Structures are given as structure tokens and as C-alpha cells.
Amino acid sequence: NVLILDFGSQYTQLIARRVRELNIYCEIHPFNKIPDNVETFKAVILSGSPFSVRNEDAPHPDLSKIRGKVPLLAVCYGAQYLAHFHGGKVEPSQTREYGRANLSIIKDKEMLFDAITENSQVWMSHSDTIKELPENGVRLASTHDVLNAAYRIDGEETFAIQFHPEVYHSTDGKQLLENFLVKISGVEQEWTPEAFVDMTVDELREKVGDDKVVLGLSGGVDSTVAAVLLHKAIGKNLYCIFVNNGLLRKNEFDSVLDQYKDMGLNVKGVDSSARFLDALAGKSDPEEKRKTIGRVFIEVFDDEAHLLKDVKFLAQGTIYPDVIESISVNGPSATIKSHHNVGGLPDFMKLKVVEPLRMLFKDEVRRVGAEMGIDPELLGRHPFPGPGLAIRILGDITPEKVRVLQEVDHIFIQGLKDWMLYDKVWQAGAILLPVNSVGVMGDERTYEKVVALRAVESTDGMTADWVNLPYDFLQKISNTIINRVKGVNRVVYDISSKPPATIEWE
Ligand code: XMP
After folding, report:
1. Known catalytic residue at 457
2. Which residue, of 88, 107, 267, 317, has the greatest Cβ tally within 10 A?
3. Does the Cβ of 504 fall within 6 Å of ligand 1?
């Protein structure tokens, strides 16, 4: 397996994803927690970092158990780190070294640049530059502005590159990673969805044995794939609970429940809409709404889990981005929104946790789901927040507002599907605003609600941009909503990016 040591770069996860795309398994660990068994890894990659090696607080890990023992590829900060502390020289760059550059490759007996042609485009992002190579350093490539764009250390399988092979704009970046991992380090490309399913099913059987497992289904991709995987491993001992919190999309509870049953899952649908809506009555603060929904969910789930006798395990659809211990450069980040589904369940349930997807990225979860024959439509569903429509109804929530928003949302989402736009959008939904506006219908003055439509493109929800939906489409949807949904007389389209806005309005 491959180890990626994280120095806090925004691109660290991208390195892991590129490695996984090569069907190679890898793990990210913080630079200050090098695993004890590091010699057993097949290769190590050092990430970039927002720090300068010349800064006193900069990461300063002890690589003595790695260098010369395990093949090493140092990226950006990693490359500077090797130079700075081992006899080379790193200084602030004279010119800006951000963005595109082209490589001039020095042919060498090493295979790092195999199948990569002269002038290959790479992506630079650094403000320091390596002036002198470290001891035994041999230059492998330069660019117009960066003399030491790549080097190796004589007598070791240690390589260093100043550019970022993991980003899309480094055209041959994946080839370079493949050269390092496969040709130089001899790592096998065995990490396929099929192999993952086989391995995980075996592990789950081993871990769970004949015990019962309970799992909360949400209708989303992660919990569904986790359920199908567990079902494959332990069959009828998996008990799924799907809670209707009254804040799902129109008809979603029934249609998703039917789909789960068709898939052979042992699932109980629990309609607790009234319990949630009662608890939410009169609450208009977004965080209070989230916390209320989280609390009621735990109560409902706990009641249901207690009805099942002798359950020993709780399964969750946690995925890798939630697990990676990230290096925080500026201290703990401020809570912008508390995502209730990360909280977990109370201690008194005393269940052991199984998380079969905890090492997978989202795209891998989808591939694993496809491998197990899950309906592509279900796998392609947009993300939907745990608190559902509650955070899309600004202000307090009433059953009537939920009904109105469900109708609007349904017209919008169905429209996206009919116009073949659904798969081009990462997430979409409608927001019910707490204002009335004046309109005219027939000869009557109206004074009714405003709804906003939101559709964004994103890869992980961390940053997002609004989608340039066709005017014809927006016109049609707006007309349909105003004509069909009583109580709404105005539709607006949200054209804010994240940051500075967020995807949800609350
Ligand atoms: P924001 O609004 O923070 O949303 O830009 C980013 C992504 O997270 C989802 N989201 C939530 N998901 N519980 C969830 O399970 C929440 O409380 C929550 N708030 C936002 C949002 O839908 C988007 O995909």
C-alpha cells in the first residue's frame, strides 16, 4: 500500500484520488503521525503545504525510517523540505511561480519521466524556489522559471518535483504518478471495485459473525451502498431503518422505501413526520432547527433499535473525506453549519460501529455501488442534506410551508430530468423565502410567497458555482411553478457562488 504524508496542502486529497484512479490503494496520514510500520508501505508521497520551509513553525518530520528504505516522491513543499534540510538551498522566488509551465526534461536512466514528452504542461503553485539541490541531488527537469523543477537523489529511490502532478492541469501528472508507483516502486494495480467488494464482504463476515446489525438508510448514495454491501455479507441479520422526518422531497419516502424493498433489503419505514414537525414548531434559528432534527432523529432511531432484540452493531455510511485527519494551519476552523449527521448516536446505545465505506471517496462509492448492480439512477442522485427541507424553508416551519416547497421542488427537479439537465448539475433545490411580494393574477392583486431556485456545480460541496441553466428552461419552470403552486407568485434564481455564499441558504 501507498502512504501519503500530509503537510496541509489543499491538494492532498487530490493526490489520493489520482493514486486510487490508478487502482492503487493509498492512505493519507498527517506528517506528525508517521505509522510505526512505515517500512511495510510500498511507496511514500510527501504532499505540498501552505508553509514555507524557512518558517520556524513549518512541518519538520523525521524521514529517517523512510529515506533509502521505501521509494519516496516529494511534491512541492516535500521537494523543498528535502532540499532545505539536507544540504540544498531554498529561497523566496524572484518571479511568481503560479499556474502553467512547461517541462524541459533531462533524460536520465530513471523512469520518472517515461512516456512523458518534452514541453509537457505542469501546474506550479509555490512562492519559494529550490536554488541548490541537496546532497547527491541530480536534476531531472526544469521549466522556464524554475531550474530545479524535478530531481532525484543518487543512491536512493527518492524523487522530488516542484510542480503538482495531482492537478488536472498537469497534463501528464497521472503518468508521472504511475511511473513512480508502478515502474519504480513496483506497486500492483489491484484496487478495483470488484476486489474491494470481495475483500470487504470477507472482513464484514469476520467482524460481525452471526450478530445483528442496524443501519439508518437516508435514501442517499452512501447509506444505500453500505447497506447493499452489508446485505451481501450478512443477509437477513442486517436491519435497516428509514425514517421519514417529514422534510423529504415529495413522494420520496414511499418511492425510496419501495426501491429498497425491491433490492431485497430488510427495511422498516418509520413515518415520524408529525414528531419532527411538532418539535420544530416555532423554531426559526437555523442551528436550532438542525439540532432539533438531530435530537429527534436519535430518539426515533433509538426507539426503533430497541425494538430489535440483541443488536450488537451500528453500521454507518461514513466515507473517507469525513475520516481524514486534516492538518489545520489556522487552528480549528469556525463552525459555519453543524452537520447533524456527523454527530453519531448516544453512548448509551453501546453499539459497536461498522463503517464499510470509511476508506472510499465518493466516486469510488458510486463505482462500488455499480459493481453490485445498484440502479444507476439511485447512484446518480444529487446530495440532499440530512435536515432536508427544514433548512430550505427560511424561518419557522409549518406543514403548509413544507407542502408548498415540496411542490415547487418537485417541479424543478422533474424539469431538470425532463430537460436532460439533472446529471449536469451537482445539486439543486428550491428555497422558500420568508417574504411576500405583490403580484397580479387575472385582475386580482396577490400578495404571496417568493421561492428561489438553486442549482450548483461542484465536486465536493466545499466550493461551488451556480449553473448557467438555459433561459428557456428557467422560463418554463417559473411559469409552471406560479401557475400550479398555490401561494407562490414569484420565482428567482440564485446566482451566488460558494464562497462567499453557501449552497444551502441556512
Ligand atoms: P453548504 O450549505 O454548507 O452545503 O454550502 C454544503 C453541502 O452540505 C450539505 N449540507 C448538509 N448536509 N446536514 C447534512 O447532512 C446539514 O445540516 C447540512 N447543511 C448543508 C448541502 O446540502 C451541500 O451538499
Report:
1. no
2. 317
3. yes
The angle subtended at Cα 388 by Cα 384 and Cα 389, nearest 5°, is: 120
Here the cell at position 62 is 523525521
ipTM of the complex: 0.99
Whether 337 is in the pocket of ligand 1, judged by its Cβ within 6 Å, is yes
Check residue 266 and report its DSSP letter.
-
How many angstroms separate the CA atoms of 384 and 137, rounded? 51
Considering the four listed CATH numbers 3.40.1000.20, 3.30.70.100, 3.90.470.20, 3.40.50.880, the one that applies to the domain covering 2-184 is 3.40.50.880
Query: CA 280 to CA 194: how far, in whole Å?
Result: 44
Is 224 annotated as ligand-binding? Answer: yes
Sequence-separated (6 or more) residues with CB below 8 Å from residue 415: 421, 473, 476, 477, 480
The model's pLDDT over 457-473, given as tens digits with 9 standing for 90+, comes to 998 888 899 999 999 99
10 Å CB burial of residue 187 (0-12, 13-18, 19+) is: buried
Q: Does the predicted model carry a pTM greater than 0.80?
A: yes
Q: Which residue in the list 84, 97, 157, 166 is annotated as catalytic?
A: 166
Amino acid sitting at position 14: L
